[in-house]
Amino acid sequence: MVLTLKTTGRSVLTYAASICLLVQSCKQPETQTSNEPPEDNRFTKVVLTEGMDEPMEMTFLPNSRVLFVERKGGVKILDENTGEVTLVATIPVNTKYTNKEGRVREAEEGLMGVIAHPNYKENSWVYMYYADPDTPKHVLARWELRGDSLYESTKKVVLEVPTQREECCHTGGGMVFDKEGNLFLTVGNNTVNPRTGSSNLDERPGMESSDDQRAPGNTNDLRGKILRIHPEADGSYTIPEGNLFPQGTEKTRPEIYTMGHRNPWRPTLDSKTGYLYWGEVGPDASVDSVWGPKGYDEFNQAKGPGFFGWPYFIANNRPYNRHDLATDTYGEPFDVNHPVNESVNNTGLKELPTPVVPAFIYYPYGPSDTFPLVGTAGRSATGGPVFRKADFAGAPRPFPSYFEGKWLIVEFMRGWIMSVTMDENGDYQSMERFLPNESFVSAIDMDFGPNGDLYVLEYGSAWFRGNSNSRIVKIEYNAGNRKPIVAASIDKTAGAVPFTAQLSSEGTKDYDDYDQGKLTYEWKVISDGGVNKTLTEANPSFNFEQAGTYQVSLTVTDTKGEKNRASMEVVAGNEPPVVSIDFQVPNRSFYFGEKSLAYSVSVSDKEDGSSADGTIKPNEVAVTFDYVPSGYDPIEMASKQRGAESMAALNIGKNLIETSDCKSCHQYEQASIGPAYNAVAAKYPKTDANISMLVGKVINGGSGVWGEHAMSAHPQLSQADAKRMVMFILNMLETKPTVESLPLAGTVIPKVPEGEDGQGGYLLRASYADKGAGTVGPLSGDDFVALRNPSLDPQLAEIRKGVNLLTTPGTTFNMVGSGSYIGYKAIDLTGIKQIDLFVVASPRVSAAGGYVEVHVDSPTGPLLGTTNAVGQKNVGFGRPAPGEDIVTWRRKRNSQAQAKIQPTEGKHDVYFVFKSDKATPDQVLVQISEIVFLNEEKAPLEAAM
């Protein structure tokens, strides 16, 4: 028996790999010496499919097929030969957290990982790692996948990991097999993100989920680990020799290969050395503090089993400080030479393994002096493969020898791929950008396929929803004729019919001289309603007259017959909604401690009406107001906002039911003339087939299922409205987020959550998913206003010149030479009257001191103000006194440079230019720790020493 019905649809973006057999560039690549870097333009980025629903991990099957899984349970296969994506099964999974107070929100967990067995051709085995739908546990199970069918009767549960699902976050779920058939599985820490953004060390009763000593630091728990097991034919597993703890060792789990992980992601193995590599997501703290070091993400290497430090150490074994949350007191740093787990929640060994393995590559939010190429921004280390040419004998186009033994790593948030070189001992040597002009949107997995091409699985830009820009990208190396690089765009992707859109191939190019000016263009405009048009101009226009969803693709062919394509989706027949927030704040960049903030939200939609005239109901619009911690995890915020959006979308269906005649025959929970809606939800699983069938019954009527009474037809209802109603009914029995959306107008009260340091900001966001139009599905619109804390970290400045950043033993941000500067983009200066800079001119580095000029729009732009001059000052060492506010303590230790600001309206780029009449070009002027924008003039703080 097949697990679920399979459905097949043409991919939005397809690529016929069979073309490869016909063209010159798919011949065996030319010989290249290992020390000769290839030209970037010899790599071609090909989009295979897009528009997935939270893709998580992929694995490769024979005959150019890619198996991938989606978080909500979808198991799908992309056939590169045809470009088709087939849904082969839907695995029942949990996707919600429910805390002790009963609050429900979206979870990271679901269907998290997939891998095919190395002998898949013979045994058809695939392994998946998922969150059990009923019991708090993560499950590794095996199925047989033959063709496009996953057989439920073959399911074997291999391993289970007990978890908590009250609080976010971290699941892991990456898998890789070694040559001996051993399976490596990454398991996340399953622990709360502390508001401090540092290590989790909360031993207070009832706070077990906030103590990472009970999981990653526990030798007797599978969470926060990388496991190594040998799956057996009967569905069980054995323990291979050489794991961290020999079988039978008291208070240990023999499955553990490495421990001390926070959130290990995608693992890979070097086929030559056997070394294990993976990406590891770190905590959120943006600065060093009394808790310990700031947060770092890591790319790690294990040459064998070991302890990788979390929750006691991070980065290159930087220790956290002992912290008693019951008394809010701090102790000494943990000893890296003698790590001990003394937590009341520890069920394993007290003495932890040594030596503690430091991170291979590590980087904070701000710049890294050790690994400067990684840049600055949000961070989420994913992972990637180690290239060995021997793995691709006979492949049509493996990467050149230059990449032999290099580790290719991708970053989820920053969008780059790095090529990391190791020496003969496997130790870090250097890194360089791979395809520096390309960016990858939220890459959640990356690996080489059997054909030698590099595949990147991109999750897309928004959490907890399907994204039109999620996709599978293949990067091909072409040693001979190079494929065209295709760029396709359109000036309008949705609208009411009729509308005319301009198509553009601007940016399309070919790097071969003989192809210049000789490329041919073919646009295809195909709709689900039967439209099929071909246009052969480079930049044609097209009139969308018929409602429907269109796939618009551009295929470009060079003189050798080599083709490449790009594609996009256009929705005709539904104008996107317009959402607008009027947030009545004096400054749209900063929050200045206002007790309350008034706002109003307006929504208009060409087909649905507007919120002003009441045709769009308030409960159909999701409005959220959130505190944003200074170093925050965007996943946690997205889980709340996504909950509000899903409830608002379902409320549209409920409102349609309330205003129809449906309630004359149906009630929500009690049977009437017809069945109760919750009984309908219980009878019909939420599959595409059932949804289509029920939509037909709502519109056309029916009888004979629930009794003798016939169900009335509703031919006046559109397909979209009927589907909204059906979706509300089928979701009635599901666990729903317990998040309340705000009204369309009102007042919000900014509050700092318990345990926060108050250094964050606030985000007001409004979103509306419209009702669709006829057979055309819904479109969404949103607006937001983000008010950040007026205290800015210099390390997050987007613009800089003359900066010297030191990270040992602590972080110091030095301005070097008169005329050095840092700058921030798009700062609203409305109402800003003063800017304070907290700086130190330390005698230890012979700092010159100086003053600061504040300019707008450029370092030499209009001068808004100049600070007082500061001279040398000894800071010394120390910690805040018990109960003393750390921010005030830090500010008192610094010198305060204050600038009165000329009245300025609107947003500008703001530059802080550091000057001294005495400094040499290479001399440090000051170390800067903080920049504070003020909406009133304030006197300097009194010195504390």
TrEMBL record:
Keyword Iron: yes
Amino acid composition bias (Basic and acidic residues), ranges on this chain: 201-214
SMART domains: PKD
Key words of the record: Electron transport, Heme, Iron, Metal-binding, Transport
Taxonomy, superkingdom: Bacteria
Residues in Cytochrome c domain copies: 648-733
Residue spans of biased composition, Polar residues class: 188-200
Residue ranges of domain PKD in the record: 520-570
Segments of this protein annotated with the region Disordered: 188-221
First and last residue of the signal peptide: none
Annotated Pfam families: CBM_6, Cytochrom_C, GSDH, PKD_4
Protein name: PQQ-dependent sugar dehydrogenase
Naturally occurring in which organism (per UniProt): Imperialibacter roseus
